[in-house]
Amino acid sequence: MPGSDEQAGGAGSLDDALGAALADTVRGTGASFGGLYLIEEAEPVLRLVAQCGLPEAFTVPWQRLPLTAPVPVTDAIHDDAVVSVTGQEEMARRYPRAAAVLPYPFALAAVPLTGVRRSWGGLVLMWPAGRPRRITPREHGHLTSSARRIARLLDDATRSPHLPEVPRVVPVEASRHPAQTGLAAADYLERLPEGALALDLEGRITFVTATAARLLGRGADRLLGTRPWHSLPWLDDPVYEDHYRTALVSRAPVSFTALRPPDQPLTFQLYPDTSGISVRVVASTRQSQDSPPAPARPAVAAPTGRLYQLVHLAAALTETVTVSDLVALIAHQILPAFGAQGLVLSGVEAGRLKITGYHGYPADVMERLDALALDTDLTPAGQVLADGTPAFFAHPAELAASYPRAPQISGKEAWAFLPLIISGRPVGCCILSYTRPHTFTADERAVLTSLSGLIAQALDRARLYDTKHRLVHELQRALLPRALPRLPGLDVAARYLPAGHGTEVGGDFFDVLRLNDTTAAAVIGDVEGHSVAAAALMGQVRTAIHAHATAGAAPGDVLARTNRLLADLDSELLVSCLYVHLDLAGRQASFVSAGHVPPLLRHARHPASVLDVEPGPLLGIVTGAHYPVTTVPLLPGTTLALYTDGLVELPGTDATRTTADLAGHLDGADGHDLERLIDRLVRHTTPTGRHTDDIAVLLLRVSRLRDGAQ
User: Fold this and answer.
1) Taking the CA of residue 693 as centre, how many other CA atoms within 13 Å lie in the half-sphere pointing to its CB?
2) pLDDT band at residue 119, thresholds of 50, 70 and 90?
3) Sign of the alpha-carbon torsion through 70, 75, 76, 81
4) Pairing with 234, which of 310, 356, 455, 637 sits 20 to 30 Å away (CA)?
């Protein structure tokens, strides 16, 4: 049977099939840009694997995105729904970081790529400014059907999709009559009194008439293949490059006037489409109000793309939370932005530079450079911290002149040493390195110097967060059981997952108690909120249940007595709890619920289901509350899944439906390895790994009888 790669529309490979499907979607929807994102298996990030309609340089800030990034495509994947942004105002309101990098009039839609068994990623489409503001039901259907087609290609593929470092640029074919590209068209243009240029999507001049060359004051041979703001010094201003970017993104005509020295105003009219930009050049009799005066400008102006990139990186740095987030951001966004390949991020600890993260270096090199004294003569890192001034070395000889051993240790050939300083206090050092010699331009030095201050603040903030986070989770581990008891005939596995990036300890808890050789008790619960108070109350609940259960109290009495204790404590926090008494000899399980989410039950050879346990009130509300007992058979091969509401109560979803769906997934999964089964259950409900509440899961499986035992 032929592989699906070959079946996909006759394409020779999965990559070709995906590219063709993306181009078809862009053409079919009338979009000006299309981008295909896939989820990386190794880490929870999105990778832009294919794009069409814009130059690759435009998408550098968006080529790798954390699944938690505040952008439309991640929301579409998380909510499994189309996300539509109707214009720039809505983009600024809902996604300010994206709006800062793309300050152009356009509409956007992000569509999830949801396959049969998993979420593959998302599709992003952009339309020109003149497009109707709302997506019609017919357009919505076209978008979702296109996404389903791409998801089917991925579902049916015989191999995993290729995730390139740089996205593949897919052409969007534009139909043209052959005569339009021939001599007749060129002769027609040459006879017109105004000049004409053609730019490709990258901004390079691909055609220029003699009239245009005369008006611009430079021969056609010196213009072809160049970008106007590079080959014409008087157009080397970010304002003019931004007009090109505006036309390209908005797909709307743009007009502006520039002054060709010494005194000739020229009007440029830009007409974009999917293949490039046609430019009309007309000599003006007077200077337009839009044209800048003949000015004293800096010798080198930072390109507009670099300025927008700086805005994007600055915004991204403010959103990093942990040190690992910061290292990933620098490695995947800042390094590519400056063409660097290596990163070393060090923090100042007790007079030494402790490496907190790196990229592009072997581990043994980092071991040699870790914990160097600030006054080391091995690298310039300590010196730039003392001076507070960045140091740039374009090739090994420059570095070796002052630090002879440094080039041999790292194996790199160019370096930027950036001191990380906050209010005069040294925080650390960030080193960007290159595998080949690299000359740092003035704008690169300026931008990197600006970024160093932002990186310093991000590093200081992230280290503080990591410290708090570590303390919180040490407290959490101290309150949860260190190990679960072993009992013949019962297999147990448990998992606790803290909520997102929160630094507050949660109130979810679980426990398994061995009562004797043939009976055990399992408990799972959730104290409202994330705070030290919630953690303290959680510890009291666990202790009370443990004491009553091991003292021999009946299942209903265990929660009734614990409830009286909490009522006496007069806590304002609500507590849900599920207690299960397991009689392995009598093959019976007794369930008692204090307002907790229902467990899942799968008998051997029977479908899994949501167990209907009659609930009692939450603990601590009513002093004399009664807690009914629900009894079910406990046959060999039975699997019980106990969990907290963070697993099923997800934003934008119905908890009852999610719970039933989870039971179906438990029914179809191989339950032999309980740890892997927990992984599958969690990944099923939170495929992006992003959850806003704590999750606790406790799985219990009754072993099958052996050797004819009764």
Assistant:
1) 19
2) confident
3) negative
4) 310
How is residue 530 written in tokens? 């994330």
Higher-pLDDT residue of 357 and 3 is: 357
Contact between 623 and 567 (Cβ < 8 Å): yes
- Containing 69, the helix (H) or strand (E) segment is none
Written as one letter, the residue type at 275 is: S
How many Cα neighbours within 13 Å face the side chain of 136?
A: 6
Instruction: Please give the residue that has the higher pLDDT: either 249 or 438.
Output: 438
Q: What is the pTM of this model?
A: 0.51
Higher-scoring residue by pLDDT: 42, 14 = 14
Angle between helices 532-550 and 442-479 (to 10 degrees): 30
Contact 63, 167 (CB under 8 A): yes
Residue that the structure tokens 């068209």 belong to: 185
Question: Which residues have C-beta within 8 Å of that of residue 468, sequence separation ≥ 6?
Answer: 503
| pLDDT for position 656 | 84
Tell which residue, 113, 118, 114, 120, has the closest CA to residue 163. Answer: 120
Determine the Cα–Cα distance for residues 73 and 70; give it in Å rounded to an integer: 9
- Which pLDDT value is given to residue 305? 53
User: Three-state secondary structure along 401-461?
Assistant: HHCCCHHHHHCCCEEEEEEEEECCEEEEEEEEEECCCCCCCHHHHHHHHHHHHHHHHHHHH
CB 540, CB 525: distance < 8 Å: no
Q: Which two tokens stand for residue 160?
A: 């995993």
DSSP reduced 3-state for 119: strand
CB neighbours of residue 679 within 10 Å = 14
CB atoms within 10 A of CB 290: 13
d(CA 710, CA 321): 56
Q: What secondary structure does DSSP assign to 19-57, as a single string?
A: HHHHHHHHHHHT-SEEEEEEE-SSSSEEEEEEEESS-GG
Q: What would the pLDDT profile of 492-535 be if each residue is shown by its tens digit?
A: 999 988 775 555 566 788 999 999 989 999 999 998 877 777 77
**How many helices and strands (H and E) does the chain possess?**
23, 29
Structure tokens at 140: 């919505």
Separation between Cα atoms, residue 444 and residue 447, nearest integer Å? 5
Distance CA 77, CA 83 (A): 9
Total length of the chain: 710
Residue 530 DSSP SS3:
strand
Distance CA 616, CA 612 (A): 13
pLDDT over threshold 50, residue 708: no
Average pLDDT over residues 240-253: 83
Given a cut of 50, whether residue 295 has pLDDT beyond it is no
Long-range contacts of 481-488 (CB under 8 A, 24+ apart): 481/510, 481/511, 481/512, 484/512, 485/512, 485/513, 485/514, 485/520, 486/514, 487/514, 487/517, 487/520, 487/584, 488/517, 488/584, 488/703
| Burial of 586 from C-beta contacts in 10 A (0-12 / 13-18 / 19+) | exposed
Tell me the C-alpha distance between 417 and 427, whole Å. 14
Could you tell me whether strands 519-530 and 575-583 are parallel, antiparallel, or unpaired per DSSP bridges?
antiparallel
The chain-wide mean pLDDT, for the chain, equals: 82
Most confidently modeled range among 203-212, 295-304, 700-709? 203-212
Query: What's the rounded Cα separation, in Å, for the pair 492 and 701?
Result: 7
Asked if the bond preceding 390 is cis, omega within 30° of 0, the reply is no
Handedness of CA 352, 356, 359, 363 (dihedral sign): positive
Instruction: Judge whether 490 and 700 are in contact, CB under 8 Å.
Output: yes
